[in-house]
Amino acid sequence: MSEMAVTPIEKSSPEARDELPATSRPWLEQIWLDTIGRATAKLGLVWIAIITAVAVFAPFIANSFPILAKIDGRWSSPLLHYITPADVTLIAVSAIALALWPFKRVGFRVKCLSIAGSAVIISIVTLIVIHPPKAEVFDRYRTLAKEGRLEKAIYAPIPYSANDRLRDQFKVDNPHPRAPSREHLAGTNPNGADVLSHLIHACRIAMAVGFISTSISMLIGVIIGGLMGYYASWVDLLGMRLVEIFGSMPTMFLLIMFVAAFPDYRSIYLIMAIIGVVSWTGDARFVRAEFLKLRHQDFVQAAIASGLPLRSVLFRHILPNALAPLLVSASFGIAGAILLESTLSFLGLGIPLGEASWGQLLTDAVGSGGSFKWWLAIYPGLAIFLTVLAYNLIGEAIRDALDPKLRKRD
Amino acid sequence: MIHYIIRRLLLTIPTMIGITVLVFLVMALSPGGLAAGLRNESGNMRPEARKKIEDYYKKRYGLDRPLHEQYLRWMNQVLPIGFKEPDAGFPKNISFGLKTPDLGESLLLKRPVIDVIVEALPVTVTLNLITVPIIYAVSITTGIYAARRRGALFDNAWGTTSLALWSIPSMWAGVMLLGFLASREYVQFFPPGGQHDTLAMQMPFLPRLAEDGFQRGWLLDAAWHLVLPVICLTYAGFAFLSKLMRASMLENLSSDFARTARAKGLSEHVVLFRHVLSNSLLPLITMAANIIPGLFGGSIIVESIFGLNGMGKLMLAATYSKDRELIMSETLVVGIIAVVCLLIADLLYVVADPRVSYE
Amino acid sequence: MRWIPNFESEIELPDPLLQIENLDIGFETARGLVRPVREVSLSIYPGQTVAVVGESGCGKSVTAMSILRLLPSPPSKVLGGSIRFAGQDLLRYTERQMQAVRGRDIAMIFQEPMTSLNPVYTIGDQIAEAVVLHQKVGYREALQIAEQSLRDVGIADPHRRLREYPHEMSGGMRQRIMIAMALSCKPKLLIADEPTTALDVTIQAQILELLRKIQRQTGMAIMLITHDLGVVAENADVVAVMYASRIVETATVEELFDHPKHPYTQGLFRSIPKIGVTSKRLETIPGTVPNPTRFPVGCKFHTRCDKMNGDPLCTTVEPLLREVSPGHWASCHHVEKFADSPVTPPQLEHKRETDLSAVGEVKA
Q1: What are the pLDDT digits (tens) for A367-394?
Q2: What is the pLDDT of residues C317-346, one digit of tens each?
Q3: How many CB pairs under 8 A join A and C?
Q4: Which of A316, B43, C34, C328 is most buried, judged by most C-beta within 10 A?
Q5: Is the ipTM, as predicted for this complex, more than 0.90?
Q6: Across the interface, do B260 and C110 touch by the CB < 8 Å criterion?
Q7: Phi and psi for C299 in degrees, rounded to 5?
């Protein structure tokens, strides 16, 4: 019988001292509540919610095509005519996610799976059903209006698409980029596109890059880190060399080298994959350390002694415990991925021209002649900064919520 | 300690080899290959002339050989020790010994890559040598100050500020500084770019007061050109390290050994600076291994914005023109520098922390 | 064996060396004010060993830390009471005056010898630091003093050890070093906060034996914080039992071990295995220590008490420490003549004359 059970005076252990009044909520939920209880985290979440909403509804916020138009006496919706499968999928999936959210009885895993499943199904369906016109003539409806054929039109709040270069509004005495004005609230870029519209449509790239690259890097990190921690010995030694190689190389150089290796195949998916491939080392280190630390602990040893395979102990019991710390790294990882993408786009190595990205807008702020266009620097820079900051704030709030020392204090 | 150092040195070898393999594989398996760069360089060349160039490079780098042979060939070429003339045929090809490393030829600059790198490296290294001490000085002082007044105004304000600083994209900072402090439209206080004024070579080395007013001299001119780039490179680093320093100070301030030191009757000042600080600096040594690669990466952005002809700008130029040899060599050199920094940081840690030698 | 007093004249006063009166300590937390120490009164006479016994979280370590004013403030603050050392109230001292007391007059050793030494400095540096500070000697001389105190605590080859780092030593060795450091300035009072808890049983015995030996040689007083009744029996002259922030019973060691009066103390003794009684199952005190944020009203022990029998007094009125018999203080309504006993601060100028090896077999 252990000493603890016999004597009422137990050895004073730090765990016993830190013991808090037991909470009935599951641990992760408690962490989550602690996290969003912090003002900074709330601010971050609000900003991300705004950016996400803007990203989802981008075509309805900024579009050169009217939502409703009466041409030659007939009503139509050019905006819906030009809508892409991606637009529809995004809106449908976020509607499903929002609808599922309030149901407390539906488990988190079920929610995630059903959202992911519906995303796949909807995207396939939309790809088959929706065929927007290949050529987009952005100034078509403005021309029609000039000709007087457009009798009535309801436009989106910002009546310019991101790639609308305003060819019909070209003026020799007022070349692009134009400073902010009543027509273009955030000015135009050197190509003549509306900056605000660009900013809005670029939310999509930022959000997508953040989530997908981080998922890729976490997947690689958890698998490699898990293998290292599970097999230990030479697998660990080998894995650590791999971690050291990827970890010690300056990320930007590694990133640019990968980008340079695909000179003719540049696409946003490639950039996401590359960012994921160069930034997994932190997660791998963490999962490995967690596995190695825990596999020597008594309860794991006991579980193994009682016949439970180590694999099941590690992946079914330890990994879920490591989930919350991984959330911290995910949050910081998303911030990092957005930074990396915008940096690449700023350097002209990121997403292909023609797609909207905050970093790309920033490139044109300092023109070749050394002239400075403040609206091309401040607005996109602020967008990147605030989004990165929001994720960092959330990451830090989760980390603080996880830290028992800090929890005890407040 | 010696045991640990030897082990650490030995473990560096596979990492170094790993970096060469990674760099080689990525570039060798690149879908475009050498041809992409050549197409770019010799767009309006006659087909037979281009063929000639292509054949020359194929032979030079052994590109028609199998992959592993290409790699070994490249390693032999890059290393300062190896076979001097591998293609010369027996018996000349077995002459083994020290030689000048050959990093190939740049398609873009039509010069040996090693010469180009030797020119660019000092610029980047100078930037880092200025940046690293600033980062450490700022983060240590602010970290100590914030930890001493935990929960006070400065601590909270600095905590938020450093997280904000850490989130500022450095290209944004660069563009804004350049735009507002070095442009015709706003304040033109700093030079818009470059390492020197065009007239720098005629300047005296040190600043002096001449009859026609103040002359800033070569040194001050160079420093003046580096102010904005250095700002761009430092703020993220010290924001990050300062938080780390604060956390580690707080941990050690409430540690058992700090309590022992207080129980001895030492003043809080002595406890802080003699006992807590020495322990809190330890994690910062390890962090140098993260900071320095980050700075090399950051130099890409800063050098391209401020027009400094260092490794970063060279890497970009190489990437734009798909200059295979230049990209490979750049990444290799930077990677090896990073691994060496990692090694130095680890060895410094061994010296600083008596515990390591024991384990 | 006899304890031979070795007093200097100024300590040989009838006054206690340390007198804590009605000490009240509060911690400001998000869940409100927590009071880990309430109305604690305790006296320690020169050359005496006073043991403070109790479960973890009962406030014994906080009491010890508050004597040297080592509790971080905020969150801690003194709500009332006094701590008089050689007649002077330590709570009124400035921080600078306090620093002169720490290490020189009152030294302290801690529970965790593994982490209580600074890992980046040598043993010699850390001991000499205190010596230089308090004895106004040079570093070289301080190192010699450090070497001597290492020899005093029975460390072999002290000259070599001076240049070693803490991690190169075992836990027992480190605790010896902590003791050497504490003794290097010849303090009048040594506060030992669970000095042996983290150590192996054999090492525990060695360390305690060392403390006894040093006490015999120097005549310093020891305040021994522990949860181990075996340690108490072997080392203490006077015992104070703490439960839920208060001292619930205090008496000389013989008196307390022979006639425990408080049901908590009695419960403690029942839960110790005794030699000769092997067949019976060991008793435990039912329930757990109440959470300091939610102490019960009335007697704090009534939730676990076997003597209460539904007495409404216990659940409404908190019993304060009273001198229930000469030299024996307890706080329980169910002790004989409790209501008539005087409320006096406990002062026990007792020094043990005999070696209680018979009780020493009691092990917690």
Answers
A1: 766 678 888 889 999 999 999 999 999 9
A2: 888 888 888 888 888 888 777 777 777 778
A3: 48
A4: C328
A5: no
A6: yes
A7: -65, 130
